[in-house]
């Protein structure tokens, strides 16, 4: 294996590109990520990595919850590559990307003649036999389809569309959501019985704004990555950019940080990434926050306590609005319990 190095961190060999530590695609099992690709020093993320290792030791279903860009597929692939199934297929499907009329035949396969143009074809469940099936955005499925998925998981067998034969399977199921599961259940978008069947093992991935101590670490990681990838020699970001990164909310999470660094590599003419090399939207948020505080406070007309209460009120209402009225999501962004959020709202109104 020239140019590759072996990692036995999970107890099974994982091959990474030895030149920069980044994964190369595993043609055999359809993955590109291993657990070493999850770059973190944050304690919550280190806990996530420990959960990945434990989840890999059993065949129990796993439910991953994380906002867009937090790395749900990376976590799912890491579980697969840490498990005894690592040499077998990892099959990933974004349930939201397949029309509901085609989802059943894609997942379970078809029997020739079952509908116009149908041929004998295996579905993704069969393709993942002895391996792992990753169902992303599973809440996008219609309720009847969720029932069929639940039945397949519980009985460990499937029946093709138009077929009568039950096909036994050995598949580890990993599912992912990018919205709060309890809210989805309340809204009728996720069946409670399917949620409990999938969430035997739960892994919640924190947003980047909740792991600020990882931003500098990730920034250096991506700089090293794009130096290797683009043949450049960027040393670091400027102090001003570092401060902007620390204050920005990163709504698209790690994916957005990676894209910002890549964009800066294409913009900069220097060996240090400066303010002019990053998107203006990052600066706008910072400007808005600074003006938010400096403009409002007038020592002649308002005391500190009243000023702080007004700041809190605006932050709460802005956060609720940003989350389209989803109180659970707003509470999570504010890093307070939902009960405390309701209490504060009642006090403000």
From TrEMBL:
Top-rank taxon, per record: Bacteria
Keywords: ATP-binding, Nucleotide-binding, Transcription, Transcription regulation
Sequence ranges assigned to domain Sigma-54 factor interaction in this UniProt record: 38-266
Gene Ontology BP annotations: regulation of DNA-templated transcription
GO molecular function annotations of the record: ATP binding; sequence-specific DNA binding
InterPro entries for this protein: AAA+_ATPase, AAA_lid_NorR, Homeodomain-like_sf, HTH_Fis, P-loop_NTPase, Sigma_54_int
Protein name, entry field: Arginine utilization regulatory protein
Organism of derivation: Sporanaerobacter acetigenes DSM 13106
């Amino acid at each position: 294996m020239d140019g590759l190095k072996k990692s036995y961190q999970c107890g099974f060999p994982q091959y990474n590109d030895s030149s920069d530590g980044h994964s190369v695609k595993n043609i055999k099992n359809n993955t590109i990520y291993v657990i070493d690709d999850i770059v973190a020093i944050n304690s919550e993320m280190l806990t996530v990595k420990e959960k990945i290792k434990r989840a890999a030791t059993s065949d129990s279903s796993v439910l991953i919850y994380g906002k867009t860009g937090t790395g749900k597929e990376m976590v799912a692939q890491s579980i697969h590559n840490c498990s005894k199934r690592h040499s077998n297929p990892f099959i990933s499907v974004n349930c939201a990307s397949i029309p509901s009329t085609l989802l059943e035949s894609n997942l379970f396969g078809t029997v020739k003649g079952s509908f116009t143009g149908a041929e004998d074809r295996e579905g993704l469940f069969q393709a993942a036999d002895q391996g792992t099936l990753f169902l992303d955005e599973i809440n996008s499925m219609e309720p009847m389809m969720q029932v069929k998925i639940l039945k397949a998981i519980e009985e460990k067998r499937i029946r093709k569309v138009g077929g009568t034969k039950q096909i036994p399977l050995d598949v580890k199921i990993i599912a992912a959501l990018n919205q709060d599961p309890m809210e989805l259940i309340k809204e009728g978008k996720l069946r409670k019985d399917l949620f409990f069947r999938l969430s035997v093992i739960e892994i919640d991935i924190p947003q980047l704004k909740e792991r600020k101590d990882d931003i500098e670490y990730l920034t250096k990681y991506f700089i090293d990555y794009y130096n290797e990838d683009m043949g450049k020699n960027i040393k670091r970001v400027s102090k001003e950019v570092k401060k902007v990164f620390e204050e920005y909310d990163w709504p698209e999470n790690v994916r957005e940080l990676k894209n910002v660094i890549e964009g800066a590599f294409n913009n900069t003419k220097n060996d240090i990434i400066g303010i002019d090399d990053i998107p203006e939207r990052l600066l706008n948020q910072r400007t808005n926050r600074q003006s938010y505080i400096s403009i409002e406070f007038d020592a002649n007309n308002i005391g500190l306590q009243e000023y702080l209460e007004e700041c809190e009120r605006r932050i709460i209402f802005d956060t609720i609005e940003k989350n389209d009225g989803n109180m659970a999501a707003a509470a999570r962004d504010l890093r307070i319990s939902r009960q405390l959020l309701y209490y504060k709202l009642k006090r403000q109104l």
